[in-house]
Amino acid sequence: MNVVFRKHLEEIITLTDTEFEQILLHFTVKRLKKHQFVIQAGSLIDHEYFVISGLLRSSYTNEDGKVHIIQFAMENWWISDYHALITQTNAIFDIDCLEDVELLSLSSGSKKKLCEEFPIMEHFFRVKTTAGYVGLQQRILSLLNNDAQSRYQKLFAQYPVLFQRVPKALIASYLGVSRETLSRLSNI
Amino acid sequence: MNVVFRKHLEEIITLTDTEFEQILLHFTVKRLKKHQFVIQAGSLIDHEYFVISGLLRSSYTNEDGKVHIIQFAMENWWISDYHALITQTNAIFDIDCLEDVELLSLSSGSKKKLCEEFPIMEHFFRVKTTAGYVGLQQRILSLLNNDAQSRYQKLFAQYPVLFQRVPKALIASYLGVSRETLSRLSNI
Q: Is A144 near chain B, with CB under 8 Å?
């Protein structure tokens, strides 16, 4: 577990063994079974999560009961309802487990302390968040462009393993297309 | 000019006069006239910009020549082609001025030095980027929800001044709706 997380951090920063051990103290391990919820819409939340193993989904249910998938998260991804986290309001997303998961959980308070104690971790989070920002901007572009085929191809190229681990109906929901359109796209 | 920027930074961090002066040394002032380009798609870029005054637009032109507006930026906003900036590839966005602008320009090298010299600036950028990430996530949600009316209302509530300064056709493009749909929405 620690090896996975250290490797993830060291893609951006360099750490001594002691530093890594001290950083790890700010996290707690959380294990959940398939179908369990990490975050439920409507609840107050105070944590974000790094995925050691397993697969999760973040989703939003609108007033008509239609469910939109905001994000999948598997090994080496971070997930939370960041809007709720930074505005300290109730979660609007559900985050549930599509497989059994092992997570490293970080509270807002611990993140603050961690960044104060290790400016290098502030750097890590800034770089990681910037990458996340760019990823979302690309997704907006693809949605504005209304180009389902390019969305499908990009997702497949970036995360082929998602297509083996996630039911097709959920992939279709993430891409914002119907199940039929997805079938057509996957046959091109 | 300096007052505007200092106030912006001090929404998140606290600075002494000396610190602020040293931080400011990493930026250069850039003035451009309406219609001029700050960034042109296809070019290599190395800067991001803080808007002191004026209004800009970031847009993407797809293969069919259709233009999508990615972002507007006015006073107190940051703008660049962040994908190009972090991956050091050619810009895919055009950024042009809808009004005369005064910008503070920050190169990648200066940002790196600034964050090393002032960890508090690393903190500032992390917090700012997280807020940007959350904003984009909300926009994705609204696009997936295909709810033009809520997109219109949110934009109007957040930035009423945009509707006075930006031509209606550009607002429609930003919202991903036709000019006719926008007229209908603005009459609701």
A: yes
String of DSSP letters for B70-110: EEEE-TT-EE--HHHHHHT-B--SEEEESS-EEEEEEEHHH
Best of A93, A136, A178 to disrupt the B interface (most B CBs within 10 Å) is A136
Residue B169 sits at the chain A interface (C-beta within 8 Å): no
Domain ranges of chain B: 2-118
Token readout for B181 is 């749909």
- The pLDDT tens digits of the residues spanning B6-43 come to 999 999 999 999 999 999 999 999 999 999 999 999 99
Complex ipTM:
0.91
Please give the CATH topology (third level) of the domain spanning B2-118: Jelly Rolls (2.60.120)
Q: What are the tens digits of pLDDT across the range A25-68?
A: 999 999 999 999 999 999 999 999 999 999 999 999 988 898 89
Chain A contact present for B89, CB below 8 A: no
